[in-house]
């Protein structure tokens, strides 16, 4: 955790609303993007992001800095999403329009039609992976968390994260090899 984040956390714990607001600003977009990918639609992601930060503030006193603040917040977001899934007891399928709204950082791989179709197909294949494997892909590749941070968020061993990533890559590679080339 950076010195700035550490100071913001301490100030927020002491009731400094400006520090709390700055922490939200620093982490909101990444948490929202993570939840959007997990739940499949913008409205649910917005609701879950709000619930996540509400839980963050009610739990802030328990944050001890054993992991980065980002990892801790992603862990809360993950559990908020799991709780919401249990309540709904089903996953909504992602529409084509939803995939169109996925924001890519940097140059978009969807700039030309062939890449766009492949990216859409790859995202949809990721969503067919077993839930534990899919969650690891979301956190590690989509959110950019390290192997250790991903393990902490999910409450599993780093070796399990590596195994699940290897499973995902093997599955996705096998699917891409079946695509005919022109």
Automatic annotation (TrEMBL):
GO process terms (BP): DNA-templated transcription initiation
Record protein name field: RNA polymerase, sigma-24 subunit, ECF subfamily
RNA polymerase sigma-70 region domain sequence ranges: 23-89
InterPro entries with a match to the protein in the record: RNA_pol_sigma-70-like, RNA_pol_sigma-70_dom, RNA_pol_sigma70_r2, RNA_pol_sigma70_r4_t2, RNA_pol_sigma_r2, RNA_pol_sigma_r3/r4-like, WH-like_DNA-bd_sf
UniProt keyword terms in alphabetical order: Sigma factor, Transcription, Transcription regulation
Keyword Hydrolase: no
Family: Belongs to the sigma-70 factor family. ECF subfamily.
All copies of domain RNA polymerase sigma factor 70 region 4 type, residue ranges: 123-172
Pfam families: Sigma70_r2 (PF04542), Sigma70_r4_2 (PF08281)
Protein origin, superkingdom: Bacteria
Cross-referenced NCBIfam families: sigma70-ECF (TIGR02937)
Keyword Membrane attributed: no
Xref: Gene3D superfamilies: 1.10.1740.10, Winged helix-like DNA-binding domain superfamily/Winged helix DNA-binding domain
């Amino acid at each position: 955790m950076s010195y700035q984040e550490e100071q913001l956390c301490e100030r927020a714990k002491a009731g400094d609303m400006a520090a709390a607001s700055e922490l939200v600003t620093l982490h909101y977009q990444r948490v929202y993007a993570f939840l959007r990918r997990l739940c499949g639609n913008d409205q649910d992601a917005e609701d879950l992001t709000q619930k996540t930060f509400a839980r963050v503030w009610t739990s802030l006193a328990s944050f001890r800095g054993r992991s980065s603040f980002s990892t801790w917040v992603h862990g809360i977001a993950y559990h908020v999403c799991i709780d919401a899934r249990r309540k709904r007891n089903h996953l909504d399928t992602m529409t084509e329009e939803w995939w169109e709204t996925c924001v890519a950082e940097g140059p978009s791989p969807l700039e030309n039609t062939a890449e766009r179709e492949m990216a859409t197909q790859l995202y949809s294949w990721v969503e067919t992976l077993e839930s534990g494997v899919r969650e690891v892909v979301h956190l590690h590749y989509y959110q950019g968390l390290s192997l250790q941070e991903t393990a902490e968020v999910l409450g599993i061993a780093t070796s399990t994260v590596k195994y699940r990533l290897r499973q995902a890559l093997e599955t996705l590679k096998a699917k891409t090899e079946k695509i005919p080339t022109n």
